[in-house]
Amino acid sequence: MKTVTEHIDKQYPLSELTSRIISCAMEVHRSLGPGFEEVFYQRALHRELLAAGMEATREVDIEVRYKELTLGKKRIDFVVENCMVEIKAKGTLDATDVIQSLSYLKASGYGVGLLINFGSAKVQIKRLAN
Prior knowledge:
- This protein is of the alpha+beta class.
- Helix content is 35%, strand content 32%.
- It is built from 3 helices and 5 strands.
């Protein structure tokens, strides 16, 4: 089992925070495995984040803006302290998932995000920066 510090990479902003989130995600994947709907991973990850002492809020609305106009709202899966977290439960992540998450990160105003996929045999994690 990997420890939290094994995921720290100083080249990434907020590496210690994202490392803690990654450890929680890996624990969820170890326990549940792949194959469930996204909502089950979301609930389990929320429990792990809180148990690890992190401030985590599920389903946070962000405004999507174009110049001075608010176009509407989009819901992101989590805000964990000052990091956006999007989760998926599909066979594999593709370029569209990354592009979409980067757009959400930009719209949210957070500088750092994670994209986590629980649907594959091994949990997939992408660190994102705005």
